[in-house]
Amino acid sequence: MPAPVMSQLENTSAILGEYMLKGWTLTDLHCDKCRVTPLMREPNAAATRESRDRIQFCALCDGRPETRISNSTRQLPPPTQSSSMIVNNQEYEEKETLNQSDEAALSISDLLLKGYSLLGENCPNSNCKGIPLVGYPKKSNGMKDSRKLCVSCNSRWIDESSIEKEGMTIINQSQESPKSKAKWELYGLDSFGNAQINQSEGKGEKKVLDNEEFDREARDSVKRLQSGNTEKEEDDVNMEEIDKDFDDESKAKAQTSSNMSSHPIRPMPTPRPINNPIPPTSDSQLGQALESTSNSLSSTLQNLSSSLENHTSRPPIQKRGVVEPDSGKWFVDLKLHTEAIKDVLGVLGQVERARRVGY
C-alpha cells in the first residue's frame, strides 16, 4: 500500500515544526511571495561559527534550506593579521554602540511611562551617537516644559529662544555679577584667576601689587561687599537658587560663551510625576478604564489557558521512524499559545501597576 501523500499545508506545518525543534526562530515577518507563511530565521550561533549571514526562509515557497546552507559555507581564505585587527576593532565599536543604545532604550522606556515625550532630535554631545532627547512632562500649571534630557550623558538642554520664557539668563564673560567681581578683587586676582597688576603713570610699565596695596584693596573690597546694593544681592541670591549645582562661575562661562543654537542647563528638581505618582481612584475615568481593561485581559488570559490545556491534552501520536503530518502544526500552535499568554501577562502587569501605584 503506497504511503499517503502529504498536502501542501501539512508539509509546510511539518517543516515549521521540525525547524522550531532545531532552535530556529518563528518570526512575525511573512513571505513576500505567498504573503501567508511566517518566515523562519536561523540561530545566530550557527551562522557566526561558519562566518556567514543568518538564513531566513519560507517553508511554503523555499522548502527546507539545506541546499542554501551548503552553498553559503564555501571555504574562505584565511584572514591576514591586519584585516583581523580591523574586524576586531569594528566588532568592538559596534558592540559598544549597541550596549549604549540598549541602555538608552531602557531608560527612555522608563521615562515614557512616567510622562516624558520622545523628541525628534539627537543629543548634541559627540559621545552620544544617535541618542534621541526626551522632553519633560508638562508643568503643574499645564504649561509646556522646554527642557530636554539626554539619558546617556545626563545633560539638560534648552533652545536659545526658550531661555527667556523659562526665566533664565545667559551670563556672558563681559556680564560678571558684582558679587563675583568683588570676590576676585578681594584676593587680588582678575576674572580669569591671574594676579592683578596696575599700570604706572607715564611709561606704561606694569608692576605687581605689594603687600600694603593688597591689604588696602582687600579691606576696600570687604567694605563694598558689606555696604553693597541690596537689590543686586537679591538678584544674585535668585541666580544662586537656580544654579545650585553650578556655583563655579568659570564652568558657566565656558558652557555659555559659544554661539550655539542650544545651551546645556543645570539639573533641576525632578518633576512631581516621577517623585510622587498618584494612583487613580476607582471613581475616576482613568480608574474605570483600567479596571475594564484588567477584566478584559483576565478573561482573555483565561480563554487562552483553557485553549492551551485542551491543545496539550491531544498531542500527536509518535511512531518509531514515522513523522506524523499533524506534529509540525501541533508544535506551531503550541508556540503561538505560549507567546500570546506571555504578551497578555506583560500588558496585564502594567495595567495592575498603574491601578495600584500610578505613573
Automatic annotation (TrEMBL):
Ranges of biased composition (kind: Pro residues): 266-280
Bias (Polar residues): 253-262
PANTHER family linked: PROTEIN ZNRD2 (PTHR16537:SF1), SJOEGREN SYNDROME/SCLERODERMA AUTOANTIGEN 1 (PTHR16537)
Biased composition (Basic and acidic residues): 202-223
Composition bias type Acidic residues, residue spans: 232-248
Domain of life: Eukaryota
UniProt biased composition (Low complexity): 290-309
Ranges in coiled-coil conformation: none
Pfam families: Auto_anti-p27 (PF06677)
Spans through the membrane: none
Record's protein name: Uncharacterized protein
Region (Disordered): 195-323
